[in-house]
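Would you mind writing out the residues of a protein together with its fold in token form for me to study?
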Amino acid sequence: MPRLNPHSVRFTLLLASLVTLASFATDMGLPVLAETAASLGVTPATAALTMSVFMVGFAFGPFVVAPISDRYGRRPILLTGVATFAVFGALGAFAQSLGALLTWRLLMGAGAGTAQVLVVATVRDNFSGSEARTRQSYVNLAAGLAPMIAPTLGVFIASLGGWRAIYGALAAGGVVLWVLGVRNLDESAPVDAARSLSVRGTVRSYIRVVRHPVTMGYAVVVALLFGCLFAYVSGSSLILIGVMGVSQRTYGLLFACTSLGLVFGAFLNARLNRRGVSHTKLVAIGMIMVASVASVLFALAWAGVLASWLLVPLVVLSFIFHAIVRSNAVQGALEPVPDIAGVASAVVTGLTMLVGALASAVAAGLFDGRTPLAMTGTMATCALAALGVYFVVVRPAERRFHLEHPHVHTEELEVIADGVAA
């Protein structure tokens, strides 16, 4: 059976499905944490560790497998990641203790993280310039839709077979995606038999990514913007329900509305890239808007006049521009280092998860129980820091490339960017 053409809609849909593994694995279980805790004889707060260890695996697993994908190709490593997710999801359905479930969740996270990192690298392998950003935007559409579907789907599945049925469904979904990947995905990266997988060679690849001003600059921008977004995601229930007094049902609807901002932003970015709008213009405008909205939210919170009818529309606006920036910035991080795109993608993902976790911890730790100052202050700090990194680090580096190579189109800069940075 012939593999899917990378330019086909079906290829993009398959990649989009692969990046939803993490969202479904985390969000489907949220409504039944109390049931899971009771079944295993622990408190709900302790059962919530299943979410934390999943994200640890998601963040750090790809650091190990990404260099392997740069050596042996994306396809076998990506399929291994999906298989890992499915196998340990199935084991999670039969876990008899919290320790066992945490172990399986950690390995599920590593599998899901591997899949997501290598989807990003696969997009970079097959496309460059505006086309890569367009494809990444379409993939991100799925990432925005999944959180709106997953909690309701989790409740439905749990009503049929309890919390263990959710793990069974996740495993089944992983098996389906593995079969589709085996049948439809071709290798996207050139396999370099001469590339060393020694510890020294792997460390050298990571150092190369960290020292590259454009790649690392964009990675920090993506991470800080995710910190801004995750500060809201993690703190929104405390503020909207606990401080502003909205009902749980209303909160669910409001949260879905903010997720729609990410979906619309990804769609809009794809259309703008198709029309040839410069990625530097999209990122610059998007960064300014995200930072401006976050600053306005903090100012309103400081003045004591921030209400739900102001908070949610402003967050939706921010999320639209966040989606625009993210798709362009992720590809901007990978383009200068095409031969180690897997390593670069792992750095972006790992740093993003780390900053997101820190932002969430800061917002929760500073929450006074009465005002949204901690959440909005964290959002504003992350957004303004991202804006500064972009204009102080990333833009000057990209401008140097253009000045030194005025005859080279943006799509071709990845060929010479690493040499210039070195």
